[in-house]
Amino acid sequence: MSGTSKLVTIFGGSGFVGRYVARRMAKEGWRVRVAVTRPNEANFVRPYGAVGQVEPIFADIRHDLSVEGAIAGADAVVNCVGILNETRSKKFDDLQAEGAGRIARIAAQQGVKTLVHFSAIGADKNAESEYSQTKAEGERLVKKAFKSAMIIRPSIVFGNEDQFFNRFATLAKFSPVVPVVGGDTKFQPVFVDDLAAAAVQGVLGNAKAGVYELGGPEVATFSDLITKLMGVIRRKRLIVNVPFFVAGMKAWGFDLAQKISLGLFTNRILTRDQVKSLKVDNVVGAKANGFKVLGIEATAMDAVMEEYLYRHRPYGQYTELTETAGKLKA
Description:
With about 325 residues, the chain is α/β, with parallel strands linked by helices. The chain is built from 12 helices and 13 strands. The longest helix has 18 residues, at about 90-110.
């Protein structure tokens, strides 16, 4: 690694998407500053590069001084910060709207050359979901402060550490029934490392400014995705489509439990805002810029799912051997 290597600051760089961006940027020879709220829990990113090339640091995007320190001296900035549910200390508006705008504004003030901002398909100021509303407001503030920014809107993301397929696979281990809210809602799952590759294009200045909606090569309903998952993990389960009204009542109960517990319980099961989001299809727009514009071929689910979901099978890595042995006995 050269002593004159360029520096990129990745906010949320130890998260699901951020760690893949960090790894790819290290391979590009850049110094990588992983800006997170708990740097002591992000030490796993250090081996992504040579000694000292990838460093986790503390940063809180709710405060100007913290963001200024994290960006100081950086040639590029990537913002991967996002939350799926609110807690007492983490609010949609603080992180996905104001926080995003703060990063873009300070990056522009400090003369950063390139900025990549991760948003989400469905970002819309008129959306019913607050998650989607704040994503849209974050985009607006980013565009206002940093006109040459690359904004990436992914569909649901899959990969080794995902909280989608892994979550339902874990549920299937213990329950004969798998409930699905919005079973007919369409998704276009995108592989996490493909997103990282797109972000690198933005950091290197190889992507034009603007919004990119990124989804994989397959569009499927929520129910179809869970059915596919059950086939991969070799489990037969009853998939039940829960009506939105019923889901809303359950989510209300979980949200209330989080509120009255004063933070002792965090609702990671189902929130009312998530129910609202699940009413809307999550697919790439017909006229949107996508992977093709970036020269990236999106990875199919079948090429990856077997590699990281085998651990959820009844016999884990030995499932295929067990199945083969059973056929021989028959």
